[in-house]
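Incident log, support desk, overnight shift.

02:14 A customer reports that sequence design results differ from what the structure should imply. Their input is reproduced verbatim below. On-call engineer (initials T.W.) acknowledged and began investigating.
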C-alpha cells in the first residue's frame, strides 16, 4: 500500500516516519482507492470536495470525512454514489449537523455516524486530561501543550 497526502507544504518528518508521498490533490484523487480528509474548516478547505473533485476520483474509490462537514458537498456525494462512481462513503460529520441528508442515510454504500468517532471513555478521558494540561501550562506561562495556529498567549 502506498500512503499519499496532499498539503500546502511538505512534511518531511511525517514522510520519513510513515513513508508517505506528497502529491497534488488532483493526482491524489485520481490515483487513490481511499481518500480520507483530515483538515480544519477554513476559507481554503470549505467545499474542497465537490462534483469536480469527485469526478476526478478513481472509479470505485471510497471517500471518508471525519474532519468537518463543510469540506464536502453532500449533494455531489449522493450523485456520485447514485452514478456508481464512488465505491462508498464514510461520514461522521455533516454540513448542517445534526441534519443528515436522508439520501445518505438510506444509501447502501454510505456509512453515516453522528460525529462520534472520539466517543470512547479512554479518548474522552485523554481529551479532558489534555485540556487540563493546556490550562495549567497557560497559567504557568510555559506555553500550550497543543497549540493551534497563532492563538496561544506565549
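02:41 Re-run completed on a clean worker. Output:
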Amino acid at each position: 500500500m502506498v500512503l499519499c497526502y496532499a498539503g500546502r507544504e511538505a512534511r518531511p518528518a511525517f514522510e520519513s516516519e510513515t513513508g508517505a508521498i506528497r502529491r497534488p490533490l488532483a493526482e491524489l484523487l485520481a490515483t487513490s482507492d481511499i481518500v480520507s480528509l483530515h483538515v480544519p474548516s477554513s476559507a481554503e478547505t470549505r467545499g474542497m470536495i465537490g462534483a469536480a473533485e469527485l469526478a476526478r476520483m478513481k472509479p470505485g474509490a471510497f471517500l471518508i470525512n471525519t474532519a468537518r462537514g463543510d469540506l464536502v458537498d453532500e449533494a455531489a456525494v449522493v450523485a456520485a454514489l447514485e452514478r456508481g462512481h464512488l465505491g462508498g462513503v464514510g461520514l461522521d460529520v455533516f454540513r448542517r449537523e445534526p441534519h443528515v441528508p436522508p439520501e445518505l442515510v438510506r444509501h447502501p454504500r454510505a456509512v453515516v455516524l453522528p460525529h462520534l468517532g472520539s466517543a470512547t471513555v479512554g479518548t474522552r478521558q485523554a481529551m479532558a486530561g489534555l485540556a487540563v494540561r493546556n490550562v495549567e501550562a497557560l497559567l504557568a506561562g510555559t506555553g500550550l501543550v497543543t497549540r493551534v495556529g497563532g492563538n496561544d498567549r506565549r
